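During the no-cost extension, the postdoctoral fellow (Dr. R.K.) reprocessed legacy sequence entries with the updated structure-token encoder. One reprocessed record is reproduced below for audit purposes.
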Amino acid sequence: MLKKLASCVREFKKPTILTLLFIIFEAVLEALLPFMTANLINAIEAHGVQMAEILKIGGILLIMSILSLCCGGAAGFTCAKASTGFARNLRHDIFHKIQDFSFENIDKFSTSSLVTRMTTDVTNVQMSFMMLIRIAIRSPLMLIFSIVMAFVMGGKLALSFVVIIPLLAFGLLLIGKKALPAFRRVFKKYDRMNESIEENVRAMRVVKGFAREDLEKEKFGTASDEIRKDFTKAERVVALNGPLMQLCMYFNMAFVLLVGSRLVINTGSIGVGQLSAMLNYGMQVLMSLMMLSMIYVMLTMSAESAKRICEVLDETPSLKNPENPVMEVKDGSIEFTDVNFKYSASAKKFALFDIDLKIESGMTVGILGGTGSSKSTLVQLIPRLYDTTEGTVKVGGVDVRDYDIDTLRGQVAMVLQKNLLFAGTIKDNLRWGNPEATDEEMIEACKLAQADEFICTFPDGYDTWIEQGGSNVSGGQKQRLCIARALLKRPKVLILDDSTSAVDTKTDALIRTGFRSYIPETTKIIIAQRVASVQDADLILIMENGKIAAAGTHDELLAGNEIYQEIYHQQTKGGNEDEA
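Re-encoded structure tokens follow.
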């Protein structure tokens, strides 16, 4: 785990190493300051010194203090650069890893959990890294230097540290052991809280439409309160660190003052300077221990974050390119052979089974079926969003698993059931289909998708800003923009997953007419709820319970298939009301 996280330092190794060097110089200088001061006090006490000598030593102390301050300031600058750079690289690696995930990998973690890992968890690890390269180096060095100098200056008086340090170490280990399980629970509950927020924001219209704000507030409040309880429990344990440190600090001060004063007054075995140095070194030792305890607490809290991050980085994408991938899709022909599919190995039921299907390049195929009949699942196997559990899917005569994934998906355009637009202008969104598309090409695609008319009503036209998720355009407008985006791709296979449900039948018919003229050689697969959307297709599939229940043309199915007959008569009963 540490090796994987350390690999994210990369180009920030230099500021990391410089931080360590600056910290070493700072620690050495701070350890020498009480020594120099003690010698000056002893010299004054013993036989007095001239003012010139005092000024000389004072000047040296001032220079040492300034150098120590400069080293500390430089260490702070390089540490900030190294830690923020480390966090940037860590987020970069996680994000790029997620881009390689299949839907199966994403389903394993959940979207909300991945967001938490890239935000809260990375921040925790960044803080730990910052403390490790700065405080975790400074504190042990100061601890060692101070203890050594304390024995040099105070002799047996420094034995108080032999009692304090083991006591403190034992207390810190006990605190960490009690706090870690609570922190572990907290991060899992963060995932659930983020999931609640994400769900609420995405479904805001539904929440307000059903006046369920109070229920959502209650759900969020419950999730938030559970985090509060676990954090409170963990912080109660961690808070014991402060009293423990204070106990050790004041015990040492009392011991040094009591025993040291007696030695100065009664035996003269140590001087006032040595006593002063012992107090300073004692304070440095305890401050170093306090810093170490803070590091220990932070590492305890971030250990779970580091583990969660490494789970993402160690995850193996379930979909991979073959060793010698096919880099060209010949045509849009599609063939399913003995295909069975389930979403996970542990699933008891297949989502698709006994699928045998052959589609010639350039055909228009319609798919009808009830909710949960696995229509979307079927088409998701074509661009290899999932791999078949059994059997093969071929595009252009080649098994989809033999293609370079980007090459395959570059020739298969999908307009999903949940249409998504990104924050940016209309042009920015359209160029997802073709980054090099000219204004003329975008206008042509939008005209075919019946989007140009409403775009021209906007004051800024094609430069109109689209809010995140397309929240400032209607559902039908969003669908038509997504269709135009797919048309610009000029794919070998175009899949429309119920993507004209928000437009009227007349517009739907005009869009299909545009397909025939603009992409005649492209295989078009249209999942729809309306018979009118697929009525003129070369082949219509009826899906039921994960199987192809029937296949044929409109006339064939209308003559011999009860399911199709029922759908058709239900939708046409009373005349073509939609077209009126």
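The chain is about 65% helix and 10% strand. Confidence is low (pLDDT under 50) at residues 574-580. The remaining legacy entries will be reprocessed before the final report is submitted.
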